[in-house]
Design goal:
single chain, mainly alpha, 3-stranded antiparallel beta sheet, 12 strands, 55% helix, globular, N-acylglucosamine 2-epimerase activity, N-acylglucosamine 2-epimerase, isomerase, EC 5.1.3.8, 6hp_glycosidase-like_sf
Length: 393
């Protein structure tokens, strides 16, 4: 492999695809120029199917457009889109306690609240990134205030409704991992000791509780002290989440001068999760596995969703940057070849989100409450940045 040429080509591809395909699709079909914010429930050609707004995606697109502004090109329309999403969150998406809804109507009437804190996490990173882009430090302060609220709800028993009744005491991987990235993104705008403290806490929890070497796996649900729960839910491996966690860890290792322990942790999680996730028969990263190799309970267990592929593309580049081992570029090529031959829609633009195990399209819509302009453009921005960083070393 001609590594320099390989990375040069991918760097150019990521930037071009982001600027000429992904962001224009969502600015044209998703951005709500009447009420503000972004729609995500659009059909293959961008036709609006449902005006319900995902609060997740107000923060996610607010982040992406500011992140692109900061790292790709300073386009006014991207900064305006970011502010539109953030203003919509501030004006319409919070209850009297500061918690954020999960779904609202087009004009911001609340429809649904969930027990999870992900809407708040994505809003916080949007505000932080917009602060960097705009130079308005008040958004960084607002992001820190929101992070304090997240920690209060996470750490105060009884504030969040538990997922299970007391008969099943457990903890989940998702919030533990997302708080690493959330704190990292906030730190880029304005540092605060609580950010590193939460990153340290999450890293410690991953190692103490969620990593189970007996299965060579990072599990999604464990007991309060990391106990293995031998049920269908307790045996779940989500390769996409695990691979995403691996690059969050590698990013933090780099922030700490390539801390060797963190680097090895990130690489180990990536290696294990690649082995669990890669579908040797059909290609692509599969949705769910059972750590005992029993049948997975989830109905979408053998499908190929868009986001585990994008996380693997980012993580393989991070793994190469961290280790210098060419095998990670071979993995990058393997996942990229499969992803780019199955997900992009060459007729209408953007990507399909949901494929059957064999790579055929399960449904052609470009977005819904859960899929929209986040994982794909984030992959392209991070991919461009990582290729450039490796080439400049």
């Amino acid at each position: 492999m001609d590594i320099k040429q390989y990375l040069t080509d991918w760097s150019a591809s990521y930037r071009s695809d982001l600027v000429n395909n992904i962001l224009p699709f969502w600015l044209e079909h998703g951005l709500d120029r009447k009420f503000g914010g972004v729609y995500t429930c659009v059909d293959r050609d961008g036709t609006l199917m449902d005006s319900t707004k995902s609060v997740w995606f107000q923060g996610r697109f607010g982040f992406i457009t500011a992140f692109a502004y900061n790292n790709i090109e300073q386009r006014a329309e991207w900064l305006e889109a970011s502010k539109s999403c953030i203003d919509f969150i501030i004006d319409h998406c919070c209850d009297e306690n500061g918690r954020m809804y999960f779904e609202v109507t087009a004009n911001g009437t609340p429809l649904r609240m969930r027990r999870y804190l992900f809407s708040e996490c994505f809003a916080a990173i949007a505000m932080s990134e917009y602060s960097i882009a705009s130079g308005d430090k008040s958004y960084a302060e607002r992001a820190l205030d929101l992070f304090r609220l997240i920690l209060r709800y996470k750490n105060t028993p009884g504030l969040l409704e538990p997922k299970y009744l007391p008969a099943l005491a457990c903890q989940g991987h998702s919030l533990t991992m997302i708080l690493i990235n959330t704190a990292s993104r906030l730190r880029a705008a304005q540092d605060d000791p609580m950010l590193k403290a939460q990153i340290d806490e999450s890293l410690d929890a991953l190692q103490k509780y969620f990593i189970h070497p007996e299965f060579k796996a990072l599990l999604e649900t464990v007991g309060p002290q990391g106990e293995f729960i031998d049920t269908c839910n307790g045996r779940v491996i989500n390769p996409g989440h695990c691979i995403e966690t691996s690059w969050f860890i590698l990013e933090e290792a780099r922030a700490r001068g390539w801390d060797n322990d963190l680097k090895q942790l990130g690489l180990q999680i990536f290696d294990w999760s690649w082995d669990w996730g890669w579908d040797a028969e059909y290609g692509g990263i599969i949705n769910f596995r059972d750590c005992r190799n029993l049948p997975s309970q989830d109905y979408s267990q053998d499908m190929k969703f868009w986001w585990p592929q994008t996380e693997t593309i980012i993580a393989s580049l991070y793994a190469y940057l961290a280790s210098g081992e060419e095998r990670y570029l071979q993995i990058h090529k393997q996942i990229s070849d499969w992803t780019y031959s199955h997900f992009p829609d060459t007729e209408y633009g953007e990507w399909y989100g949901y494929l059957h195990r064999d790579g055929t399209v399960a449904q052609p819509a470009k977005g819904n409450i859960f899929k929209g302009p986040f994982h794909i453009p984030r992959m392209m921005i991070k991919g461009y940045m990582l290729c450039q960083e490796i080439l400049n070393k």
